[in-house]
Amino acid sequence: MFADAPLSRRFRAQVKVQWKRILWDLRGDSLTKYRQKIQSHTDSIILLLSTFIWSATDRIEEDVKRHAQRLDELLYQAPQFNRHQD
Question: Which superkingdom (predicted)?
């Protein structure tokens, strides 16, 4: 429909369409419904991201524990290794 029209004309047409949608929405309580939907979706996204973050945090903590244990083992073995070198 607007593919051959200049950019400014297409922009104005889109602004008109969006403005009419806003006016239509303001007539009813649909703006409140949209806000509620957006809030619901935002809450869902935050919950999902929090889950990912906690999962990653758990994996990082496990890795740190494994590395700390390995370092402790190496520190314990270091004097023995030095004695065999002498």
Answer: Eukaryota
Global pTM reads 0.45
Chain-centroid distance, C-alpha 83: 52
Dihedral pair phi/psi, residue 5, rounded to 5° = -75, 150
Q: What is the DSSP string of 10-52?
A: HHHHHHHHHHHHHHHHHHTTHHHHHHHHHHHHHHHHHHHHHHH
Token pair of 68 as six digits: 């700390």
34 confidence band (pLDDT: 50, 70, 90): confident
